[in-house]
Design a protein that fits this description.
The complex is a heterodimer of chains A (149) and B (200). Chain A is α+β, with helices and mostly antiparallel strands. Chain A is built from 2 helices and 8 strands. Chain A has 2 domains: 1-30; 34-146, Immunoglobulin-like. Chain B has 200 residues and is of the alpha/beta class. Chain B has a domain at 39-112 and 147-194: Rossmann fold. Helices cover 36% and strands 27% of the residues of chain B. Chain B has a 5-stranded mixed sheet, with helices on one face. The longest helix of chain B is centred in the first third of the chain and has 21 residues, at 2-22. Classes of the chains: A alpha+beta (149), B alpha/beta (200). The A-B interface holds A 5, 8-9, 11-13, 15-21, 23-24, 27, 75-78, 80, 96, 98, 110, 112-118, 130-132, 134-136, 148-149 and B 4-5, 8-9, 11-13, 15-17, 19-21, 30-35, 44, 47-48, 51, 54-55, 58-59, 61, 64-65, 67-68, 99, 102-104.
Chain lengths: 149, 200
């Protein structure tokens, strides 16, 4: 009888851990997402070009969102950028994004100062997001997109 | 035996809840987090407003032209808070001013520290402690060319379990000499809260 009771306690303990794990999983979301970078360079003739690169760190997000286009221009001496995103889902999806800016030597400007911004994409909608560099040193940006935390 | 099992099951469920988040925790959060907790004006709203205003102002073509060769001097007016909430609006304008200064395109005068400035200048002039050659004279500060003014308003709607709050922040740059608004923009934010069946 006593042995059976202790076994029951173990079973209950295991059940508790299992339920806790389930609740824990349901409560948190992955923060890894999409990263798109763009680096502006000038050739000898002074023509400006933008090197682009998109990395998906999250296969779930890859199924939801597509980066259609990345553009960049200068407003005076400050770099501006625009990314066009398209939802692949038929439902409305919330995302968060932020831009980080780097100077010509690849050092981040105002490191850690950027904030996440909310973005809502309706079903199969394409939307542009824009950002302006904090100052004239910026030559490169990184766009991060993730699911809301 | 049956009662025993029930007790154990209850214990398991209680244990599960306590393991998964009922226990108190303390940790650092991300200062740039965009997770809204309530429909009240929050940190992410402040950051979104500051970024939107600064981005708009430094890329507005006449501003680009004007700031290409010089850095105009600007003064910041208090935000007219027309919401029903108590908001530290100086914190909003501080963020905007900081970003504008760091952009290297504008210079600012700060009227909130005038009392301390006068105190310091009085000491330099009258106390006899400071070398007259290095003492700063009164009446040499530069007058602001522009005044940055702003409004924050909210429209709140409540129907059943849903609360919908719309915020609008409007900012203008006024030329103090001519009275003309050289630039203006607004940022809108909508926050929707739906009360859950079990939520408090």
């Amino acid at each position: 009888m006593k042995q059976k009771l202790s076994r029951n306690v173990i079973v209950a303990g295991m059940a508790a851990v299992a339920i806790a794990a389930l609740l824990g999983l349901a409560g948190c979301s992955t923060t890894a997402g999409v990263e798109a970078t763009g680096k502006t360079t000038w050739d000898e003739q002074g023509a400006r070009s933008l090197e682009k690169n998109v990395v998906f760190n999250n296969s779930g997000l890859k199924g939801d969102i597509q980066i259609v286009d990345i553009k960049s221009a200068m407003a005076g001496d400050v770099m501006r950028t625009q990314a066009t995103l398209r939802s692949k889902d038929k439902d409305t999806l919330p995302f968060q994004y932020r831009f980080e800016w780097y100077d010509g030597s690849g050092l981040e400007i105002n490191s850690g100062a950027g904030s996440w911004k909310p973005l809502i994409l309706y079903g199969r909608e394409a939307k542009t997001i824009q950002a302006v560099a904090p100052d004239s040193r910026a030559r490169e940006f990184k766009l991060k997109i993730r699911e809301p935390d | 035996m049956k009662i025993e099992m029930k007790v154990l099951l209850t214990a398991a469920v209680i244990g599960a809840f306590s393991l998964s988040g009922c226990a108190s925790t303390m940790q650092y959060g991300d200062a740039g987090s965009a997770k809204p907790l309530t429909t009240e004006f929050g940190s992410s709203d402040l950051q979104q407003i500051a970024e939107a205003m600064v981005d708009s102002m430094i890329t507005f073509p006449p501003m680009v032209e004007m700031t290409a060769s010089r850095r105009p001097v600007v003064s910041v007016d208090k935000v007219k808070n027309k919401t029903m909430q108590h908001i530290d609006t100086e914190s909003v304008t501080d963020s905007i001013r900081t970003r504008l200064i760091r952009s290297g395109k504008f210079r600012f005068i700060d009227r909130t520290t005038d009392a301390q400035t006068i105190e310091e200048l009085k000491t330099q002039q009258d106390s006899g402690l400071v070398d007259k050659k290095t003492a700063v004279d009164f009446g040499q500060q530069i007058g602001a060319e522009f005044l940055l003014t702003s409004n924050l308003s909210e429209i709140k709607q409540k129907a059943g379990s849903t609360t919908d709050v719309y915020y609008k922040f409007t900012m203008s740059l006024k030329n103090l000499k001519t009275g003309i608004l050289e630039w203006s923009d607004e940022k809108e934010i909508r926050k929707v809260f739906k009360r859950g069946t079990f939520g408090g």
